[in-house]
Amino acid sequence: MKILKNLRKLGFGLLxxxxxxxxxxxxxxxxxxxAKQNFSAxxxxxxxxDIMRRQHGTFLKHYRNDTTRRGIRAIQYNLVACINCHVTAxxxxxxxxxxxxxxxxxxxxxSYAAVNVDCFQCHTSxxxxxxxxxxxxxxxx
Length: 141
Prior knowledge:
The chain contains 4 helices and no strands. By secondary structure, the chain is mainly α.
């Protein structure tokens, strides 16, 4: 009886893997929306794509710590700048929701990697209308 249950679980697992992976044996890559503009004439983003894919979380955490603990507001690894450049509206002018679907720039990869996107519990996931790159240091009281 126990063997039969294990065989059923194994069969279900194989069916699930076959469904997710597909007939080609490849896991489908997420569809990542293109950025609206280049960072500079020499590079498309603040860092090369392969570095951003691997280390963007480290950059954002380091920036977060510098901002919240030391009052330093640099623009290079600013989440607002990332959102303003990478999150694009659909044909009707609506921005995707980071908590629903997979169209949002951040959600597309985070869903693929099964990683939570918790930045947007506090931060907006849509571009700001009037974004200033000259934020300057935080004023102390």
